[in-house]
Amino acid sequence: MSVANLARTHGNQGRWKDAEELGVQVMETRKRVLGEEHPDTLNGMARLAFVYRNQGRLKEAEELGVQIMETRKRVSGEEHPDTLNSMTSLALTYGNQGRWKEVEELFVQVMETRKRMLGEEHPDTLMSVANLAWTHGNQGRWKDAEELGVQVMETRKRVLGEEHPETLNSMAHLAWMYSNQGR
């Protein structure tokens, strides 16, 4: 566990090469000791995919992301929080590749599942809605993006309060949308 923590620390410091070297070591050890489908192995793989994404190695991040998502679906089920998180991570990789249709498909699936499982006002659901709003913005679909962004902001204001960091993030996201529209 300490090697995994050190790899995470390197990543937090932007020391991506060091994070990668330790991440590969953690992933390979966990595969050998715990097996390829163990949650800790999959977590190590997810961390390594994150490192690859931050290094701009998007093909490698995508390959790991698809493997993680498919394994989690098979082992834990399509509605498990870890599966939904792996879908979100893969969507972010697709976003870095400019593959907005695939991003949207994954984010819609995650959002709908979280709404059904957690309710419309749960923080994870709201993050999923915010992710979809971000996607629409990147697609140039400003009206759709704004509608979702306002919905997230208003719900967070009501549920979390006006000064909560997530509420403020929602406001900043709306400002980004308005700025990109010249408003």
UniProtKB/TrEMBL annotation:
**Entry's Pfam families?**
TPR_10, TPR_12
Which InterPro entries does the UniProt entry name for this protein?
NLR-like (IPR053137), TPR-like_helical_dom_sf (IPR011990)
Source domain of life is Eukaryota
SUPFAM superfamilies, per this entry?
A: TPR-like
PANTHER family per record: AAA+ ATPASE DOMAIN-CONTAINING PROTEIN-RELATED (PTHR46082:SF11), ATP/GTP-BINDING PROTEIN-RELATED (PTHR46082)
Name the record gives this protein: TPR-like protein
The record lists the lineage as: Eukaryota, Fungi, Dikarya, Ascomycota, Pezizomycotina
